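Slide 14.
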Amino acid sequence: MTDIKEYKIKFGKEAVGLRLDRMLADSLPEFSRNRLKALILSDCVFDVATGLPFNEPSAKLHDGQTVLVRETIVSSTTPQPQDIPLEILHEDSDIIVFWKPKGIVVHPAVGNPKGTIVNALLHRCRDSLSGIGGVTRPGIVHRLDKDTEGIMVAAKNDISHIKLSDQFQQHSIERVYQAVIWGIPKIRTDTIRASIGRHPKHRKKMAVVKKNGKVAVTHFEVKKHLGRVASLVSCTLETGRTHQIRVHMAHVGHPIVGDRLYGGGWSRNRRYLIPEDQQCVKWNTQALASVTLGFLHPKTGKKLVFQAKQTSYINDLCKIMDSNKNI
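Slide 15: predicted structure.
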């Protein structure tokens, strides 16, 4: 089975004279630079204006140039329906809104061929899912990290998929997250404006960068101080970059509790906790949840807003950190 995925990127003045493979790596964090080089050398990366493939990864870009990356994915099997329970918040003929549990990935990929949100949606919706995302991502218009729980929406037809995707691209979707972060921010309400791009040394990580990053804006508000150990915060996304909240909160010195990729504050802060709380196994995943999702219904145009209460995982952490024994 073959699945073709296309990515179109328009570069501006900031890319003039820079290498094609480098700028593509910054724009497409899901690809490694070596993978992009291989695609270029396989004639899978095109100049949209001429329709011709680029010959070299070192090709230099010019202002206003639009590049098309075409990836052919060969998979041995098509995702199959699996009876995985989902909490449904809303469903009609165009969309399905549901709660994504912690610890489950959104779509099949290397290392996660089954047991995904896609498998669960296929079981519930059968053939009534948008096909724009390809056979491995039917209905999927956005993602949450494996260890992030929260509200998601999927499209049940191609028109809904296009209209929802447009809202995500225009940053008009209302997205609010709840998180437990290490430390006590000095300012109760603040905005983080810091561009995000691929980490210069660790290709699986994102980072705040000065050059070639994408504009990223996160508004956060401290809801509660949890002793002197941590804080419960609400984070509102103005943009939606990969790992945005995790990167931004770590950047300002308050990484998310349990974040194994960006949360370097565990060893520094656990001294405030009594021994039994330091060993809490639940802390192996980040305390981050998408609790509000608002958008215009793709058919009716009506504004829909879905909200969740504080999750049991975050609630448990708050009780542990806020207890007098840990102050």
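Speaker note: The chain has three domains: 2-74, 87-165, 174-307+318-326.
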